[in-house]
Amino acid sequence: MANDEIAVAVCYALKIDGHDLGTFDGCDGLGCEVEITQRVEGGNNGFVWQLPTRVHYSNVRLTRPVTAATQEVARWFAGAVQGGARRTATIEARTLAGDLITSWGLRDVVPVRWTGPRFDTQTAAAAMETVELAHHGFFGPGWGG
Q1: What is the pTM of this model?
Q2: How many CA atoms lie within 13 A of 140 on its CB side?
Q3: Which of 24, 29, 81, 145 minimizes the number of CB atoms within 10 Å of its CB?
Q4: What are the E-state strand segments in 42-86?
């Protein structure tokens, strides 16, 4: 893939400490925000300093239809909420052919929520699951290591 191609991802592969938890159809929440504190300078009424303070990382939500890999997520989630060590995660955006588009490394991953499928015999929609992860920053190319 050329560097100037648009990144149209078909799936997102999730790995926690290198353990493959399968691919997901949707990924939402990759982002961060810097909190800003405003300070005025005495004698300078026409200017307000904008000072960065904390960085907040939003939770990441991955969704997919229920598959056999759902059991792997359930095992990891159960172990992680029982006081396991914080982990690193990698989310890879991949094309339909499986080619890597880009990836994001997440530091100190903590499970927040797993939502299982809603079963409704009145609709033919796929049974979906959602995994929500909190993290404490990004790592990898472009993120300082």
Answers
A1: 0.82
A2: 13
A3: 145
A4: 44-57, 60-65
CA dist 87 and 77 (Å) reads 12
3-state helix/strand/coil string of 77-119: HHHHHCCCCCEEEEEEEECCCCCEEEEEEEEEEEEEEEECCCC
User: Of residues 141 and 80, which shows the higher confidence score?
Assistant: 80
User: Reduced to 3 states, what is the DSSP secondary structure of residue 76?
Assistant: helix
Statement: residue 145 has pLDDT above 60: no
Domains in the chain, start-ordered, CATH in brackets?
11-32+58-139 (2.30.110.20)
Instruction: Name the β-bridge partners of 133.
Output: 60, 111
